[in-house]
Amino acid sequence: MAKTVDQHFDDLRQTRVWRSIFRSGTGSSTLKRALAIQQNVFLHLFSTKVRTRMLSLSATWYLGTLTLGAFLILVATGIPLMLYYHPSVPQAYADTKDLQFVVSSGMFLRNLHRWSAHAMVLLVFAHMFKVFYRGAYRPPREFNWVIGVILLLITLLLSYTGYLLPWDQLAYWAITVGSNIASAVPLVGEKIRFLLLGGHAVNANALLRFYVLHCMVLPLVAMFFVAIHFWRIRKDGGLYSHESEPATVRANAAGTQIELKEER
Amino acid sequence: MADEKQAEQDLSRRQFFVRLGLGSLGIAAAGTAAFAYQYLEPNVLYEPSPVVNAGKPDRYPLDSVTLDVNSAIYIIHSQEGFFSLSAVCTHLGCLTAWNAELNVIACPCHGSKFEQNGRKIEGPAPKPLPWKRIWLNDDGDLLIDRSADVPALARDSFVRI
Q1: What ipTM, to 2 d.p.?
Q2: Whether residue B9 is found in the same domain as residue B78
Q3: Cα separation of B78 and B65, whole Å?
Q4: Do B56 and B36 share a domain, yes or no?
Q5: Which residue of chain A is at minimal alpha-carbon distance from B42?
Q6: What is the pTM of this model?
Q7: Pairwise CB contact (< 8 Å): A199 & B41
């Protein structure tokens, strides 16, 4: 019975429509599997081949992938939340309470969004620590570390802008304090605060600006840098594995123990 | 010899158009940046007026400290007269509150404490609470201009009745 289902799928994969979408065709040769990655618009950012040991939990603890997972959950829960939320004063607070107590599954979506946001900040830091202590930031991957720092900042900004949206006391005073911290920047601090809030106080303008930043600008910027981040993994020689680094391989071939040297 | 030097200094037609193109793009980019900056800066703000009407002076008994939560100012009736303080903490902008039992103005966010005249007692606040201009209008109401700081404890910073 199971075999017939498989056969049906095989027949489907041979149809002209299927072959027009997935050009690499069927079969499990190394070439076909590499082509399946290389010819997919989403997967072509990644390496077509990965060392088996890099897929083990101990290699990366999957922290980068988990961060991406948290981000995808945030997008998937954030869009439905936007359907019930008006970024206006004082409607925003009422909408938040409606989401929590009136809308079906609203509490679930909102809490999932909130906990995923906390998890994402945690995971980004964990990912950075793991990369740092493994030494995976070293050349030729140093630029990808810089991209990662930018992504950390975007994550924190997403967290910060989302904090204002419930428009409760906690949100109001947190953003008051946060925007006053921004105004401590020398010379241009007051200007930054004015542009960020769209005024001199946390008000309707500030709520709308934070909403646009949170739902539109920052997610798009994040996706842009995430794409570069993933693409650079392939370009910089795949996931970092000490045993596979050229210097280690050379040293092992020469039968000597490698000593890690500091750059510069 | 002179011709060769001339030729080195002259731009080729291609180089000239490349520079012209890049220069135009540069000017257009600078214009776009200026346009974007001006657009992001609001020209009209629908924020409340800085001048607050605090009502008749007899609403405030002698030796009282009254917080107006909406306008974030204190109206204080002291022996020397009426004066007004900003209620916004000079640390990071939280709203302070008057604690009548301890006789201090306290900030709930990071623990700064101030005297009744705005002077800092303790905490991370870098400056005392600023005094605000206060005066009586023709109807006998107390008006406070939140945008105008006046020197603390100065003669003109009080309203005497």
Answers
A1: 0.75
A2: no
A3: 9
A4: no
A5: A198
A6: 0.83
A7: no
